[in-house]
Write a structure and sequence with these properties.
Oligomer: single chain
CATH class of one domain: Alpha Beta
Structural class: alpha/beta
Mean pLDDT: 96
Helix content: 40-55%
Strand content: 15-25%
Distance between the termini: 48 Å
Largest sheet: 7 strands, mixed
CATH superfamily of one domain: NAD(P)-binding Rossmann-like Domain
Low-confidence stretches: 1-7
CATH architecture of one domain: 3-Layer(aba) Sandwich
Order of helices and strands: HHHEEEHEHEHHEHEEHEHEEHEHHHH
CATH topology of one domain: Rossmann fold
Bound molecules: glutamic acid
């Protein structure tokens, strides 16, 4: 990598390590804005979420007491269509995290060219210590509180960290009860029995393996036998592991929130999936050496997939990452300061807004199917998703190569430009 290339890619914007996701999202936007020579007024518009609400609401707990919970829904931008994005349940979420996640959804939808803006929701809670009944009451009340924002034509939630098809079913049912008729298109990621799409549960993980194949191909690494390390074994990480395994790659390490397992000869992924399903963790499996989440990130491998949460690759460990390719399964796993270190070291990183877009692509298909009440076969869903992901990958890689940029900046140039063009064409009201 020559210095002039680096100058072009990053150095014009001073970077400071931060673990505030919104600060980091703004920083990434600033880099793209400079490369696009974006109008300063438009840049200013795109920095801010268009709408955000904070809700505090009571939930009756199983022990008879009542607790107040806090939740958020942020709509970053609606220029290209209704806003779209998941809802996460986490003891650590806050408004800045949800703002960043909403902004990333705006760019993600634009990069894969689906007609959505970006949004995200979060509820501060620890679902691991809550009963099903408590989770249902929390979900229904939160859905009611944010019902002034959500709707099939306005803002469509989906699963994210610690939420799942059942949570989406409760949101759909709550919204429908208020309306007095069934409204499947108000959320995506629902169970198939109530209007969910075939292939939606697997879409994000599958999309990651598709993007990883494109990246490996570009780097001249054969997927068969490629060594893969995956942090996170939730809906994204576990399905990604299965998809890599099915493609003949050697998954040598995986982890969940408790810890990880490492086997340089390759892990038995079907057995690990069964173990994680049965025990609620993969750490009880005997087929590998125990390893911490921190150690896992620094293992030598061809492909590293951080598929857990934000801020996993920072200035504290970016120098020690030994992967050749990083595919961001999580949203925001790499800080901008770490991005620069990885780029300097020649590590090829495919950013979240492209790498994990398979989920929202199939969410789009689910929404279309719900609106038409016409449902597709899984093979059709998978084929169309793959087409959209490969097309998006190629357009990003093409800009990265032509302009000698990192893949994040190239992806942002496409996404931010599409959003800015839509906003400019529509004009400022009134
Ligand atoms: N939460 C997922 C994401 O971050 C999916 C969003 C959606 O399907 O709307 O992309």
């Amino acid at each position: 990598m020559t210095v002039s290339t680096l100058e072009r890619s990053h150095r014009r914007v001073a970077v400071r390590e931060s673990t505030n996701p919104y600060e980091n999202a703004l920083h990434q936007l600033e880099i793209a804005a400079r490369h696009l020579e974006l109008d300063p007024g438009m840049h200013e518009i795109l920095k801010y979420p268009q709408r955000e609400i904070t809700v505090h609401f009571p939930v009756k707990l199983d022990n008879g007491t009542t607790r107040i919970f806090t939740g958020y829904r942020v709509q970053h931008n609606l220029a290209r269509g209704p806003s779209k994005g998941g809802i996460r349940y986490s003891p650590k979420t806050d408004l800045d995290e949800v703002r960043a996640l909403a902004m990333w959804m705006t760019w993600k939808s634009a990069i894969v060219n689906i007609p959505f803006g970006g949004a995200k929701g979060g509820v501060l809670c620890d679902p691991k210590v809550m009963s099903m009944g408590e989770l249902e009451r929390l979900t229904r009340r939160y859905a009611t509180e944010i019902s002034i924002l959500i709707g099939p034509e306005t803002d469509i939630p989906a699963p994210d960290v610690n939420t799942n098809p059942q949570v989406m079913a409760w949101i759909m049912d709550t919204y429908s009860m208020h309306r007095g008729s069934t409204v499947p298109a108000v959320v995506t990621g629902k169970p198939v029995s109530i209007g969910g799409s075939e292939g939606r549960v697997e879409a994000t993980g599958r999309g990651i393996a598709i993007i990883a194949s494109e990246a490996a191909n570009q780097m001249g690494i054969p997927m068969a036998g490629a060594s893969v390390v995956i942090q996170g074994f939730g809906n994204v990480g576990s399905i990604a592991a299965r998809s890599f395994y099915e493609r003949g790659a050697k998954v040598i390490a995986v982890s969940d929130a408790i810890g990880g397992l490492w086997n340089p000869n390759g892990l038995d992924i079907p057995a690990l999936l069964e173990c994680s399903h049965r025990d609620g963790t993969l750490t009880t499996h005997k087929g590998g050496e125990p390893i911490t989440n921190e150690e896992l990130l620094e293992l030598p491998c061809d492909i590293l997939v951080p598929a857990a949460i934000e801020n996993q690759i920072t200035t504290a460990n970016a120098h020690r990452i030994q992967a050749r390719i990083i595919i961001e399964g999580a949203n925001g796993p790499t800080t901008p300061a770490a991005d620069r270190i990885l780029y300097d070291r020649g590590i090829f990183l495919v950013p979240d807004v492209l790498a994990n877009a398979g989920g929202v692509v199939v969410s789009y298909f689910e929404w279309v199917q719900d609106l038409q009440s016409f449902f597709w076969e899984e093979a059709e869903v998978n084929k169309r998703m793959e087409q959209m992901m490969v097309r998006a990958y190629k357009s990003v890689a093409d800009i990265a190569l032509r302009k000698e940029l990192d893949m994040r900046t190239a992806a942002y140039m496409i996404g931010v430009k599409r959003v800015a063009d839509a906003a400019t064409t529509r004009g400022i009201y009134p």
